[in-house]
Amino acid sequence: MPVPMPDDRPEAPYLELLARGAPAEAYERPVLRARADKAPADRLAALERAKLLALRVRGELEGRRRREAELSALYETAHDLAGLRDLDAVLQAIVQRARSLLGTEVAYLTLNDPTAGDTYMRVTDGSVSARFQQLRLGMGEGLGGLVAQTARPYVTESYFHDPRFQHTHTIDAGVRDEGLVAILGVPLVLGSGVIGVLFAADRRARVFEREQTALLGSFAAHAAVAIDTAHLLAETRTALAELEAANEIIRDRSRVIERASEVHDRLTELVLRGGGVHDVADAVAEVLSGSVEFLEVEAAPAAAVDRSRADGHAVRDGEEDWVAAVSAGGELLGALVLRGHPRLDPMDQRTLERAAMVTSLLQLARRSAGEAEQRVRGELLDDLLDTPDREPRLLRERAARLRADLDTPHVVLAAGIEAPDTGTPATGPGSGPGGPPGSSPGATAGSRSGGTPATAPATAPGSAPAEDAEGRRRLWSAASHLAATRHGLAAARDGGTVLLLPLADGDTADALARRTARQLGTAVHAAVTVGASAPVPAPAARPGEVAAGYAEARRCLAALRVLGRAGQGAAAEDFGFLGLLLAGTREGASDGNGVQDFVTRTVGAVIDYDERRGTELIRTLDAYFAGGMSPARTKDALHVHVNTVAQRLERVGRLLGPDWQSPARSLEIQLALRLHRLASAVGY
Q1: Residues in contact with 158: Cβ distance below 8 Å, sequence separation at least 6, in sequence order
Q2: CA–CA separation, 149 vs 181, rounded Å?
Q3: Helical axes 631-638 vs 169-178, angle rounded to 10°
Q4: How far apart are CA 587 and CA 584, in angstroms?
Q5: CA distances, 545 to each of 30, 476, 484, 537 (Å)
Q6: What confidence score (pLDDT) does residue 69 get?
Q7: Cα–Cα distance between 409 and 284 in angstroms, integer?
Q8: d(Cα 282, Cα 174) in Å, to the nearest integer?
């Protein structure tokens, strides 16, 4: 009887399969091959026994590898907790690892909000739906509500057909938008209460094993520990900061009274010998051992200045700065900013406030001296608007005396003050005086449409209510001051104010309009709306362009009010597609490429990407918006997998920016897509 060779043993082929990690279906082949060779029955039985044993060993090895990966992930999570610095980063890592180990398409974590009485989405991984990522759920609603109520894990193979939990329209819409089907949720338990839920989900039916539920529960426990640790660290930091502040107050108390007396003497001396605002700032800086700076209205931090005016005291701005508003008669003149003081003693705070009062007196004196110069600036601008055929040489000479350069690009801005509490203009176009307060009326509008001059009548002073006249006076005063500091021109006109300001390199007319609206509004303590023209290359060489620019600026001003954007500033370029109409009537403002410029500015990055890579991102965007921004409906329209849609939308987000799905951006994108299709169809 022959002795069998080692490779004739029935377990030999299975040892080879185990060694190379073959799939389970490969273990059936030795038996099938032996049957095909008509092997004896005992040989077949031995092979069957060896196959079952090998499959059992394979299962044990797979289980050990899986448990090794799970333990490694749990160890990494514990390591993250030990060096906790950023709670968001730790929670994101937990969700990502849970999704990877469970092999799900989506994982996410929700937390309870005791103040609002609901639950909100905290961290997601694999989600593509903006609506799903912003879900807020009522307590006890949905699968998460069931988990939170019972403090036990729950799993559903088909979310929409599971009656065990309360379905709501909001939750179902978000889940449907994300395309989820199978969901596993485990509680985040802290002490005796549930603070949130950790989920793993697939966009197809799936059965979650008991081991997977246990693994997700382990990650949930780590997440609860991370949240609790972060809260404790925050409370500890707060307590330490309070102790340090109290200790600092005790150390500095003995020096405060002496500094207050010293600064009082210094400020009195400065006023008597006619010092300036910067002398006051230097004196306060020396006494308070810090850096003190006087800022004009446009350079001062607006939020902090508003709080200082409302409180009547110096206020903190950021971690180390203090701001005291400089105002007189209800008008903001600037601000004193003290830097390098995380904490300020009440006596030192009072010192800064007294310095602000002295500064306001000095500013009023300086303003009185500048009134004459402001009137001269207004007269020059009136001549540019009303008499465009003036000799350029004479215009340049007059501008040079005012330190203005009319051979550089300028922007014409039309500004109007809004009535308090209503947002409506205090005076309509053409209803106010045409010159500075106190001057004779009769200035013309100087605007034109299509090159035809148009004149708007001006009413005599006193024909409008007294409060309207006061508002116009304050607006003209603030605009004149701004024009002087920017080496520009300003004049009262058509119930508002017109400015001609230089355009700095890298700046835009739209940004200048917004900045001017903010600065004037802060100065007059009321909403001011500002419309801007396209840049005028050289007002001295082409004075007629100033009148045309003023007409365009007034159209933008009127459009802002009609669109409910009173109190803002904008140029034609800020209105998107509407800007083509606003700028189109000005000579030379439209070269026929306005539509293409709008499309390129809005979705040009996506179009270029498609052309370079041969992708279909534009087609995907069209289907996404046509399907109500639902990835599930988009994949049906494109006949692709929902993961493909998710990948494409993620690429679009990187090209257009994270806010591309916001209402305002999505509206412009949809309009640009439609114009792009139309332009492609007609060969634009």
Answers
A1: 181, 182, 205
A2: 22
A3: 40
A4: 8
A5: 91, 23, 22, 9
A6: 64
A7: 40
A8: 60
- Write out pLDDT tens, residues 478-530: 888 888 888 889 888 887 899 999 998 889 989 999 999 999 999 989 999 99
Q: How many angstroms separate the Cα of 603 from the Cα of each of 547, 621, 675? A: 35, 10, 11
Instruction: Report pLDDT for 365.
Output: 63
Structure tokens at 640: 């692709």
Helices (H) and strands (E) in the chain, counts: 21, 17
**Stretch 590-612: mean pLDDT:** 77
Burial of 191 (0-12, 13-18, 19+ CB in 10 A): exposed
Pairing status of strand 106-113 against strand 118-125: antiparallel
CA distance 242 to 247: 9
d(CA 649, CA 651): 5
Q: What share of residues in the chain are helix, strand, coil (percent, to 5)?
A: 55, 15, 30
By CB atoms closer than 10 A (0-12, 13-18, 19+), residue 178 is buried
Residue 498: predicted pLDDT: 93
Residue 12 has pLDDT above 90, yes or no: no
* Sign of the dihedral defined by the CA atoms of residues 301, 474, 566, 309, in that order: positive
Tokens encoding 553: 């600026």
> Given the structure tokens 């377990």, which residue do they identify?
11
Model confidence band, residue 10 (pLDDT cutoffs 50, 70, 90)? confident
Helix, strand or coil, per DSSP, at residue 599:
helix
Q: What is the pLDDT of residue 572?
A: 72
Q: What span, in angstroms and rounded, lies between the C-alpha atoms of 259 and 239? A: 30
Select the more confidently predicted residue: 360 or 314: 314
Residue bearing tokens 């203009």: 425
Please name which of 574, 605, 585, 581 lies closest in space to residue 595, comparing C-alpha atoms.
581
Torsion angle in degrees (nearest 10) through CA of 162, 165, 169, 174: -70
Taking the CB of residue 589, how many other CB atoms lie within 10 A of it?
17
Rounded to the nearest 10°, the torsion over CA 645, 650, 652, 654 is -170
Calpha distance 346→316 (Å, rounded): 12
- Rounded CA-CA distance 476/497 in Å is 6
Among 421, 290, 310, residue whose Cα is nearest residue 351: 290
Kindly report whether the global pTM for this prediction surpasses the value 0.70: no
User: Residue type for 348, please?
Assistant: D
- Which among 267, 277, 270 is positioned nearest to 359, based on CA atoms? 277
SS3 string, 352-363, reads HHHHHHHHHHHH
In tens, the pLDDT along 440-455 reads 333 333 333 333 333 3
Q: What is the pLDDT of residues 261-276, one digit of tens each?
A: 666 676 776 666 666 7
User: How far is Cα 595 from Cα 583, in angstroms, rounded to an integer?
Assistant: 12
Query: Token pair of 610, please?
Result: 């498609």
Q: Please give the Cα distance from 556 to 583 (Å, whole number).
A: 9
